[in-house]
Amino acid sequence: MKLLVTGGAGYVGSVCAARLSEAGHEVVVVDDLSTGHADAVPDGCRFIEADLAEAADGLLTEGFDGVLHFAAKSLVGESMEHPAKYWQGNVVTTLRLLEAMREHRVSRLVFSSTAAVYGQPEAIPIPESAPTRPTNTYGATKLAMDHAITSYATAHGMAATSLRYFNVAGAYGPYGERHVVETHLIPIVLQVALGQREQVQIFGDDWPTQDGTCVRDYIHVADLAEAHLRALDRAQPGQHRIYNLGNGTGFTVKQVIDTCREVTGHPIPARVASPREGDPASLVASSEYAQRQLEWQPQRAELDTIVQHAWAFARARIA
Ligand SMILES: NC(=O)c1ccc[n+]([C@@H]2O[C@H](COP(=O)([O-])OP(=O)(O)OC[C@H]3O[C@@H](n4cnc5c(N)ncnc54)[C@H](O)[C@@H]3O)[C@@H](O)[C@H]2O)c1
Ligand SMILES: O=c1ccn([C@@H]2O[C@H](COP(=O)(O)OP(=O)(O)O[C@H]3O[C@H](CO)[C@H](O)[C@H](O)[C@H]3O)[C@@H](O)[C@H]2O)c(=O)[nH]1
């Protein structure tokens, strides 16, 4: 297929573009480099540097079989301080993309949604049928985009899939996480091991969890990419399918830091800091629906494998 990958110079988008290209698809990446890197666009993918909001209509005139839509603003704290940046940058941009897809008859869409649409969960693990009550603007914009996609699938026959990622981590060869403003736990902890930070802050140790620190479900970025390939193949016209993607196993912040200590051999100093506003205590996915419908099974579910790959990527970057 000829595919447009929005945000393909970013972390998840670059890994997925690489996998799509390896699978034989023709990949065109559009990215405005607001948080991405031109050298992260995989070899063999055509790169167009542009703001999707401005470029979507013109781009789709050349004809595509599908779109994988990763481009977004995704910093939770920033979304609370600057909501317009998120409603404009995420929702308005996506509406323009959807309109351009309708106009130019591009019907296949895979969209990066998030566990943040659920907010504080009532029960763990979280199925797709759980109530959606986002606790931050980022999650609210992702939920709004999910709703818009449902409308387009119903009204215009789009074959759409939203993948609600839990905590994405790890790397795929030369493609990995290198956000300039890094907020994610594993890369931050590895920066301590690299000597780029003095210590890691643990955001609260009084949560109702096994060791008092927050529990998250870490999913390897290459397993996530595999789910995108399957979602693309299995999409049905007129349907918008929504899948949670995680491993179904939770790890506490302290367990993650301990795993990073084992993998890196570095003591990684840590200190307890105040809880981060809006953080749920525990987020663990039920991915049974994705496993059944997409015949998808994570292949790199072990936390130490995920950390080893992130560590190899981080070390290669400074070598
Ligand atoms: N990383 C995670 O843990 C995680 C979890 C859940 C959901 N997601 C979602 O997955 C997607 C990718 O996340 P990521 O971690 O790779 O983020 P990222 O910031 O590394 O990648 C996003 C890319 O989109 C580009 N972009 C942003 N706005 C654009 C625009 N208007 N036009 C063109 N390009 C634009 C950025 O330059 C960047 O390269 C996002 O939609 C994010 O919300 C990520
Ligand atoms: O320096 C840090 C960074 C994080 N944490 C903790 O580590 C856990 C993981 O935090 P991340 O920032 O790595 O990830 P989040 O769970 O906050 O967010 C991720 O999951 C969300 C779903 O709720 C969204 O999808 C979001 O895009 C994605 O990054 C949280 O408990 C957080 O409080 C720390 O203790 N110290």
Task: Write up what this structure looks like.
- This protein has 319 residues and is of the alpha/beta class.
- It folds into 2 domains: 2-168 and 220-245, Rossmann fold, CATH 3.40.50; 170-217 and 248-283 and 300-317, UDP-galactose 4-epimerase, domain 1 (Alpha-Beta Complex).
- The protein has helices spanning 11-22, 52-60, 76-81, 83-103, 137-156, 185-193, 221-234, 253-264, 288-293, 303-318; strands at residues 2-6, 26-31, 46-49, 66-69, 108-114, 159-165, 167-169, 200-203, 215-216, 218-220, 240-245, 251-252, 270-273, 282-283.
- The strands form 4 sheets. It has a 7-stranded parallel β-sheet with strand order 3-2-1-4-5-6-11, sandwiched between helices. The chain has a 3-stranded mixed β-sheet with strand order 12-9-14.
- Helix 5 links the parallel strand 5 and strand 6 (159-165).
- Helix 6 packs across helix 10.
- The model has no long low-confidence stretch (mean pLDDT 97).
- Galactose-uridine-5'-diphosphate binds at residues 74, 114-116, 165, 167, 183-185, 188, 200-203, 214, 216, 253, 276, 279, 283.
- Nicotinamide-adenine-dinucleotide binds at residues 6-7, 9-13, 30-36, 51-53, 70-72, 74, 89, 93, 112, 114, 165, 167-168, 179.
How many separate domains?
Answer: 2
Beta content: 15-25%
Strands side by side in the biggest sheet:
3-2-1-4-5-6-11
What is the fold named in CATH at topology level of the largest domain? Answer: Rossmann fold
The Cα radius of gyration reads 19 Å
**Unreliable segments (pLDDT under 50, ≥5 consecutive)?**
none
Rounded average pLDDT:
97
Q: What is the CA-CA span between the terminal residues? A: 36 Å
